[in-house]
Design brief:
The complex is a heterodimer of chains A (about 500) and B (about 525). Chain A is mainly alpha-helical. Chain A has 20 helices and eleven strands. Helices cover about 55% and strands about 5% of the residues of chain A. In chain A, strands 8-11-10 form a three-stranded antiparallel beta sheet. In chain A, strands 1-4 form a two-stranded antiparallel sheet. A two-stranded antiparallel sheet of chain A has the order 2-3. In chain A, strand 2 (about 55) and strand 3 form a beta hairpin. Chain B is of the alpha+beta class and about 525 residues long. Chain B has 22 helices and 14 strands. The N and C termini of chain B lie far apart (about 80 Å). The chains are: A mainly alpha (about 500), B alpha+beta (about 525).
Chain lengths: ~500, ~525
């Protein structure tokens, strides 16, 4: 039995959520590796590619050219010099470590995957996210799993792209060690944000079906997977709390280019709302756990007594060197602080526990996770760092993926209708309907504190986003002030 | 009658419809006939079904009014503004009756309402399918589709495609405005007023020629103007858009006003401001005041070198250089200093097919250099593949294994269909098109002036980092689409480019063995 009850709570909460958004080391390529493995139902040994691609570890050579030449003589031209081998390895590293996830140990290593033979067994940095995504894709909606599954399979089985062909000599050594994996199937039903994510995946897949560029298609699916995870984490509370109704959304204000101060500021605020949504989500799950432990019938003093009996020995954070008694004292103080605000002992213990999980148990709290992953997929800016001042500032590729996940082929929508669809599907606001958007932001207390003319800036922001879509070939502006968007393509 | 000069000053940036600010009689006087009227006359006589579309302010109503006599003669069905139609059923009944009676029909409708109307009424709207087909082919590339005007009852004229920045339209407009103006005869309000000078200069043939040369270049940059903008522009360069009383406090010379106004036309014109084009000999003489020959009116009396304050001297130099461009015999020499890529771009758009191959090679080289700055190949377009899942940084590596030869690439310039070729249309872009062998698939890269300038700089060796994000996105997407031509001939030779360190490696994979390509 754990000597730290908080760790047990942590495990139970994460089990309930279905994945572990508690590390800033999670990269899109880790999610790709896990999702592809589950879709394929098989994993491959990447030992040879890994050895070739990783020459140095902490500035020390770990796989010398001599060793490579000796071990891989069958795939090297006999006249190839050691220097030439190392030169080739430099470029293989650039290709297969394009996402900086290749490590000296194959156990933790993830390649930038182009086809199935680069898909490896589960690595720690997946943190259960691929399984959660696979569950959404694999569940039958209208009697069918997502078309994304077939598309991923087909792209991974196609090894005709340049990257897979470059890998081929090394892959041919290891491909005999293919291993089947079994996936536990559970009957589940999707609702709320999970269903909307699934619909968007399906739409993206249908729109990408005829895209002959498999690498681009895989990139889009993975980037959308990351976006979907962020969205799920911040918005799931709307589905499980009685406080919210079906049409409520956590707003994500997309800032077109950072030039409008009011938008920039309001966008930062909406990112803060996402963080609050995550905290509320964790608290809601904790409520269930604490109810099972009968906390809801305890008085303030009884809860304080329980805290006194709670084992808090180990801390996963090395920096927290406090003794168990000191930790209990902190726990009680937090509880009392929250109790002062709400006068509700149950609410206070839930909030205090959630606070400690985020600050003391997780190596990265879930807000830090969305901040880090959001930067990596070009959803948030600044892309790296930025502390609490990040905002939604999507890369054109993210905007492209979003329109592909929302509109059907042949469908033409006005910018205003597109804005409504963005809101209903994802909670995204671009300013296409300034009055409604102001109202939505106002409902979350955002519009009141923003310096400058937010309503005017929203309209300008929408025009800027429309300009981006137009320049990408997804829209046309008529002089009547009407912008039409479609995915019929363009030049 | 003539217009008061103060009235003319109000035309600048006046967003009201001319129908609101001018009397019918005055409207007739300032009406400038363009080829669109000629085409409309022809099609009214042929009893066609005409949809006159465009943007608000394009002058649809005004055009129809100018043809009133002819329309009355043929008892034509006329709808001045479809937006005003309240009862669609009645409208359709009247329209169908007119068609049944073989009367010409003309309907003015803005572009988006036309789409909405077609969506809403579907094939209840007469000639629905023909209209859709014509709309899809409202712009053609080279001569790819030649629509025979005689076979179609329907004609769609989109005034958005009409480029009014043409020398003859500009000349007629300016001369009309000046001829209708009361040229300040006997005015004693302001003895220092620059308006008489401006009017006199703008009547001069050389000044006009230089001005229209600059303005017509704008048409190729995608600047779309309507008649109101042109009159507004001329109003401003004559009057500075202020009343006679307010013109007392500072100088308002037309050659400075041309680069000073505040709307899209003025903003875009600034890129051709003559003072930006350095000519060492002329510049030095203008600075010192030694260039005294060739002036149409008189040479500048005060010169920059005589001023002590540097800021004042620079300001004066800019003004004198502009004046030189318009009012000196050698002024046209400055036009030759406009960056060559502008001229090359304009030449191509004017259907100068003699340069097509050179242009294709230049763009091939530019795209090749975007991925590999050391590239010298301009006979083959290399296809570069990049792949990563993280978007935080640009790709660090690109791989090339396939290419397209020049005979699989063409340049296509947009044009209007044959039956509308008299319309003043000036293209603002071309397509760089790559063909997939064996089937009819193509991939297009749309190149406008801004994009062409960037590509031109890259082909000359400037680093790819200067490419703005929107053009980068286009280039990567163009490559992605080309890379999807899977049955493209591929070799066992790979070029791998380290894009951060500008370093290239050539690899051969033969018999499942790695082999570097040496030399």
């Amino acid at each position: 039995m754990s000597t730290n009850r908080l760790k047990r709570y942590s495990k139970e909460v994460l089990k309930h959520i279905g994945y572990e958004p508690i590390s800033n080391q999670i990269k899109p390529v880790h999610i790709a590796n896990g999702l592809f493995r589950l879709v394929l139902g098989e994993e491959y040994d990447i030992k040879s590619l890994n050895e070739w691609s990783k020459r140095f570890s902490q500035q020390k050579e770990i796989n010398s050219a001599e060793k490579i030449k000796k071990d891989y003589i069958d795939v090297i031209d006999e006249e190839m010099t050691l220097e030439e081998i190392n030169e080739l390895r430099y470029f293989l590293e650039l290709i297969f470590n394009a996402d900086n996830a290749v490590t000296p140990s194959v156990k933790f290593s993830t390649l930038t995957i182009a086809s199935k033979t680069q898909v490896t067994k589960e690595v720690q940095n997946e943190f259960g996210i691929p399984r959660f995504l696979y569950r959404i894709l694999n569940v039958k909606v209208d009697g069918m799993p997502s078309p994304c599954i077939d598309i991923i399979k087909s792209h991974l089985n196609n090894e005709n792209d340049e990257i897979s062909r470059i890998a081929q000599p090394l892959v041919s050594i290891d491909s005999t060690s293919k291993k089947k994996i079994s996936i536990e199937e559970k009957d589940i039903e999707l609702s709320g944000i999970e269903l909307r994510i699934r619909q968007a995946f399906d739409n993206l897949a249908l729109n990408d079906k005829e895209n002959g560029n498999k690498l681009l298609s895989l990139e889009r699916i993975v980037l959308f997977s990351c976006f979907a995870t962020i969205l799920h984490l911040s918005s799931r509370i709307l589905d499980i709390s009685d406080k919210y109704c079906e049409d409520d959304r956590i707003p994500l204000l997309f800032d077109a280019d950072g030039s409008l101060q009011a938008i920039k500021y309001a966008s930062q605020e909406t990112l803060l709302l996402a963080r609050l949504g995550i905290e509320e989500y964790f608290e809601k799950v904790l409520e269930v756990i604490f109810r099972d432990e009968q906390y809801h019938i305890l008085t303030k003093d009884e809860i304080l007594k329980r805290i006194d009996e709670t084992p808090l020995a180990e801390s996963s954070r090395k920096k927290n060197k406090a003794s168990e008694d000191e930790k209990r004292e902190d726990y009680k103080n937090l509880f009392l602080g929250f109790y002062e605000q709400s006068q509700n002992p149950f609410d206070a213990i839930v909030k205090a526990t959630r606070f400690l999980l985020f600050s003391d148990v997780y190596s990265t709290d879930p807000s830090g996770f969305i901040s880090s992953l959001g930067g990596k997929i070009g959803l948030l800016a600044p892309r790296a760092g930025g502390g609490g001042r990040k905002r939604y500032s999507p890369d054109p590729i993210i905007l492209e993926i979003i329109i592909l996940s929302l509109l059907k082929k042949g469908e033409k929508v006005r910018l205003t209708d597109f804005g409504k669809r963005l809101w209903m599907q994802f909670g995204i606001i671009i300013g296409a309907n300034p009055e409604e958007d102001m109202e939505r932001l106002g409902k979350w207390n955002i519009s009141q504190n923003i310096p400058g003319d937010l309503a005017g800036s929203l309209a300008l922001n929408a025009e800027k986003i429309a300009d981006l879509y137009i320049s990408m070939g997804y829209g046309k502006r008529y002089a009547d002030g009407v912008t039409m968007l479609s995915i019929s393509g363009g030049v | 009658m003539s217009f008061d000069i103060n009235f003319i000053s109000k035309i600048y940036n006046n967003r009201n419809s001319y129908a609101e600010i001018f009397e019918d009689e005055d409207l007739k006087k300032i009406h400038v006939e363009t080829t669109v009227e000629q085409i409309l006359r022809e099609y009214i006589e042929k009893k066609k079904f005409i949809l006159l579309t465009g943007n608000p302010g394009d002058g649809k109503t005004h055009l129809i009014r100018s043809l009133k006599d002819l329309l009355d003669k043929h008892n034509a069905f006329v709808e001045y503004d479809f937006n005003e139609v309240k009862d669609y059923e009645q409208f359709l009944t009247d329209l169908n009756n007119a068609i049944k009676d073989d009367r010409p029909c003309i309907i003015a409708v803005n572009e988006y309402p036309l789409i909405s109307m077609l969506d809403e009424l579907g094939d209840r709207f007469p000639y629905y399918h023909q209209i859709l087909e014509l709309r899809d082919n409202s712009i053609i590339y080279n001569n790819e589709i030649a629509i025979d005007s005689g076979s179609s009852k329907v004609v769609i004229i989109d005034l958005n495609n009409r480029n009014l920045l043409q020398k003859d339209v500009l000349k007629t407009s300016l001369n009309k405005l000046i001829s209708l103006s009361n040229i300040c005869d006997g005015c004693n309000i302001n003895k220092k007023c620059d308006v008489p000078y401006n009017i006199n200069a703008l009547t001069n043939a050389t000044v006009q020629e230089r001005l229209f040369e600059l303005m017509s270049m704008l048409g190729n940059t995608g600047t779309h103007v309507v008649m109101r903008d042109i009159f507004g522009f001329f109003s401003y360069i004559i009057t500075a858009g202020v009343t006679c009383e307010r013109r007392i406090d500072q100088e308002y010379m037309y050659y400075n006003l041309i680069f000073d106004g505040n709307n899209e036309l003025f903003r875009n014109l600034k890129q051709f401001d003559p003072y930006q084009f350095t000519h060492p000999e002329i510049d030095e003489k203008l600075w010192n005041g030694t260039l005294k020959e060739g002036w149409i009116f008189e040479h500048p009396k005060v010169v920059p070198s005589e001023l002590e304050n540097e800021e004042d001297a620079n300001k004066l130099f800019i003004s004198i250089k502009r004046r030189f461009f318009f009012e000196n015999e050698r002024g046209s020499e400055l036009l030759k200093l406009i960056p060559i890529e502008y001229q090359t771009f304009f030449d191509l758009l004017k259907q100068a097919y003699g340069r097509e191959l050179d242009m294709i090679k230049q763009i091939v080289l530019a795209i090749n250099r975007f991925f590999n700055t050391d590239e010298t190949e301009d006979e083959k377009l290399k296809i570069w593949v990049t792949h990563k899942y993280e978007l935080r940084n640009q790709p660090k590596v690109a791989i090339s294994n396939k290419s397209f030869s020049l005979n699989e690439i063409s340049l296509l310039v947009p044009r209007l269909p044959k039956h509308l070729q008299k319309v003043e249309f000036v293209p603002d872009h071309f397509l760089f098109r790559v063909y997939k062998p064996r089937d009819n698939k193509t991939v297009d890269l749309k190149v406008d002036l801004g994009f062409y300038r960037v590509l031109s700089l890259i082909s000359e060796g400037y680093p790819p980092q200067i490419v703005p994000d929107n053009y980068k996105f286009k280039l990567y997407r163009f490559m992605n689409e080309l890379a999807s031509f899977e049955d493209r001939m591929r070799s066992n030779e790979f070029v791998i480019r380290d894009m951060s360190n500008n370093y290239t490696y050539k690899l051969i994979i033969r018999d499942n063995k790695y082999q570097p390509k040496r030399g």
